[in-house]
Amino acid sequence: MIASIYGILKFKSPGHITVEVNGVGYRIFIPLSTFYELSDEGTTVRLNIYTAVREDAIHLFGFCSSEEKQLFEMLLTVNGIGPKLALSLLSGITPKDFIGAVFTEDRTMLTRIPGVGKKMAERIILELRDKLARLDAAAAGERSKDRASPMDALREDALSALVNLGYKKSTAKTVVDRVFEGSTDVISLEEALKKALQLMS
Prior knowledge:
CATH architecture of the largest domain: Orthogonal Bundle
Structural class: alpha+beta
Strand order of the largest sheet: 1-2-3-5-4
Number of domains: 3
């Protein structure tokens, strides 16, 4: 199973590239986001790889960031989404906007992506909402054992998750403070992120 690849970029197009490693050329399918990150042909490239094995073929899918590969793998867990549609999804929307659309249940944004209808958008939201919340919590790092309360823990996780999504820490902190202001009940990380993203939109 190929997990990553490092070699010479021999061919580059929006849909796929060829990377040569020790005289062997590997055809790798990529999303547009990765295409725009790549340098010119003839330069070295390093990609995170997802290997899709079928009875009649082995396909490689490449990503510049590990986060994008994680999101790709998560999309494959949704019923009805295969590698090609997952790649199309990542080409039609940024990871940040996609995660935001799932948390805020923005079906309109999701259905703008080629290949995603209303039923598919509903399925994506239903099946990925909790998984994405857990992914952001994990990316935020381990919780400190000395935290004062569950509410403080949720506040810190929500702040870290928003920073991981690309928001400035100062802006994220202001929004998180608004979400938890006057709240006496411990809410879930998913709900906190949903409210925060709604305030930012």
